[in-house]
Amino acid sequence: MASVHESLYFNPMLTNGVVHANVFGVRDWVTPHKMALLVLLSELGRAGAQLGLLERRRLNRLLLPLLQGPDMALSRLRKAIEECCPHLAGSVHIRLKLMAEGELKDMEQFFDDLSDSFSGTEPEVHKTSVVGLFLRHMILAYNKLSFSQVYKLYTALQQYFQKDEKKDGADENEMELTNPEELDGKMEKEELDGPLREEEIACSGPLSQKQAEYFLSQQASLLKNDETKALAPASLQKELNNLLKFNPDFAEAHYLSYLNSLRVQDVFSSTHSLLHYFDRLILTGAESKSNGDEGYGRSLRYAALNLAALHCRFGHYQQAELALQEAIRIAQESNDHVCLQHCLSWLYILEQKIFDSCVLLEHSVNKSLHFGLPYLASLGIQSLVQQRAFAGKAANKLMDALKDSDLLHWKHSLSELIDISIAQKTAIWRLYGRSTMALQQAQTLLSMNSLEAVNVGVQQNNTESFAVVLCHLAELHAEQGYFAAASEILKHLKERFPPNSQHAQLWMLFDQKIQFERAMNDGRYHVADSLVAGITALNGIEGVYRKAIVLKAQNQMSEAHKLLQKLLIHCQKIKNTEMVISVLLSIAELYWRSSCHTIALPVLLQALALAREYSLQYLASETVLNLAFSQLILGIPEQALNILHMAIEPVLAHGAVLDKGCAMFLVAKCQVASAASYTPQKKIEALESAILNLNEAKTYFAKVDCKEQLRDVLYFQARLFHTLGRTQERNKCAMLFRQLHQELPAHGVPLINAFK
Fold first, then answer.
1. Which of 554, 590, 600, 686 has the fewest Cβ atoms within 10 angstroms?
2. For residue 323, is it within any domain?
3. 552 vs 559: CA distance, rounded Å
């Protein structure tokens, strides 16, 4: 939830995901549910030492969500109390029944007796405790009621109790008609300290000030920590509209509406809510009270800054620049260095869309450290590391920089940035082709516990960093042929980040890419082609590249070449070096298929120079394998074998299973081609070694179900066994080859003209 995190950080009224609601106009009032809570507290005081330690502990844990949450049905309240202390639930029910079925004076006497809880040298309840404050608020609210209001409250209590009695009667009838096994299946434990359910809020009526504060703080915390547990966007907006109906100047409700609109990418509603938030903040005087005369200007400059962040999120860079200039102007007039540092960070983000410049970012990091802004300084260091990784800096220097930022994180307990740092390390190792190191970093983040306190039942680390690491983990498993494990990870991602959540696009893209690779390996090009549209919708560059791969596999060489040339120009323009190298390798393969072997060499050398310049070791190794294949085609297999030994080690250590299989297949081809000039005995040894390498390649291809490559390996093995006079093995390979050949379509391309 990067956007939410940015908003949380740049907004002075939201701290650690908790909204500080201090401008709500409706006070607490007495309701039948709160009277039931008062009876519970009264009976708890009467029980005293009769309650066991475990029961008292459970009741104490139960009380806080009951006092803070919305009103609930009496049956649910009774069930919650029964789970903690069954005999106390019976006492509460009897006391409520006597009051509801008695006279009005019984309720009057009950409120008179509540004051006795504070009397004596050792009172049952301290006045300043959570329970004491609740009791005093209720007593005060009851004493302010007129006689007609007291009578309405008494009538409401009777209806509240009678509704529960009717429900109990209906439940008894249902139990008589229902099997015990079915009834046990329906009974589920309800977590009171978990997130509020939609039907609870909808039936609870207008919320009091305390309940509104609790509702807003809970939903804001859930949006940050575990979006799936928060109310659905439509339901949350409905409840916020109800809150604003009673008090349109409730600024924090407008801000939560802004965060909710960001979830569904609604630019109009999010802008509308954000502007209303700062308008109400100024109108209510909340800022002026806390910041003196400076409060008005402070709201204006942070409003402009948040508006710039919002426009930048939606890609409206010109509007973002105008809003940012306004924020900078107001901050300079007010001499607000903190706001200026935030503006400087966003100025770098905007200018990065036009040209790469580290000057602004380095200046921002230094100034942030000077003014004691560790969060902003760390974000700047993370951005610098990311930029320098794309610029090809050495991995050890980048890791040293990240180590310095980690010291800031642990020193100031910045849990969110610790997660971001580990996710960044995972992505950097993936970029450099070190899959083992990337896997280690991913497992580190998954095994970490969040430093932030969250409610029971709320998932920790349910953030963008977590989604990124899980996506990398799924792709790493798929590359090694563990498709079942990758599917389980993606299933977990879908549950944790539903399709309507902010980070769903991450796993959607990886899911489509994994399906695409499986379809290509299996030779189902029509399936792969159907997946291209989905990939393009999520990432245009990836989609165009995969469309070209499908065209190449279908032998539509001219269309594939045109598409790759356009993509190459675009990627060079936006400086996407990784994709530039991949496109160059695909273009070289097109030249091989078209028998233009000499034209492929300069293209491969260009790709190798780029890979080494930007420290992309794995892509460099893959390029060397392609160069070795070119030398094999040009008739110099000995030279090809020599350079293969340089590149094959990183591929076998960190490469995908398919690449390992292709590398071993290429080694076998070079060994067979070199054996032509050997003595008979040495030639037999070379062919035996080639067969062993082909067996290893066959194992790799079988792991990813790559039937086309398996067919080629079997054909090659059959020829070698025939040369060595091993008839039985030859016939076995020939039979397996025939089965695959009948299953797969023929391409009409010579076997030797394809590296992958």
1. 554
2. no
3. 8
Could you tell me how many residues make up the chain?
A: 756
Determine the Cα–Cα distance for residues 418 and 422; give it in Å rounded to an integer. 6
Secondary element (H or E) of residue 18: strand 18-19
pLDDT < 70 positions in the chain: 1-28, 48-49, 118-123, 167-208, 283-297, 353-357, 449-461, 745-756
Kindly report the CA angle at 537 between 531 and 542, in degrees rounded to 5? 70
pTM: 0.75
Residue 701 has phi, psi (to 5 degrees) of -65, -35
- Tell me how far apart the alpha carbons of residues 448 and 444 are, in angstroms, rounded to a whole number: 6
- Examine residue 112 and state whether it is found in any structural domain, yes or no: yes
Domain that holds residue 59: 32-167
- Distance separating alpha carbons of residues 373 and 358, to the nearest angstrom: 19
Phi, psi of 315 (to 5 degrees): 80, 15
Q: Is residue 406 part of a domain?
A: no
> Cβ neighbours of residue 128 under 8 Å, at least 6 residues apart?
none
Q: Which two tokens stand for residue 264?
A: 């569904």
Q: Which two tokens stand for residue 310?
A: 């919002």
| Spatial contact of 452 and 16, defined as CB atoms under 8 Å apart | yes
- Give the model's pLDDT for residue 289: 43
One-letter amino acid for residue 241 of the chain: N
- Structurally, the chain folds into a number of domains equal to 1
Q: Among 240, 254, 259, 249, which residue's Cα sits nearest to residue 286?
A: 249
Cα distances (Å, whole numbers) of residue 87 to 74, 130, 410: 16, 24, 48
Residue pair 299/287 in contact (Cβ under 8 Å)? The answer is yes
In contact, 566 and 547? CB cutoff 8 Å: no
Residue holding tokens 């008609």? Answer: 177
pLDDT at 18: 32
* Distance between first and last Cα of the chain: 39
Distance between CA atoms of residues 553 and 551, nearest Å: 5
CB 296 within 8 A of CB 287: yes
Q: Are 85 and 59 in contact (CB under 8 A)?
A: yes
User: Exposed (0-12), middle (13-18) or buried (19+): which is 469, by Cβ within 10 Å?
Assistant: buried
Q: Give the C-alpha separation, 301 to 259, whole Å.
A: 19
Task: Report residue 394 as tokens.
Answer: 């050495």
Query: Which residue in this structure is represented by tokens 């009032």?
Result: 29
The answer to the question of residue 464 being in a domain is no
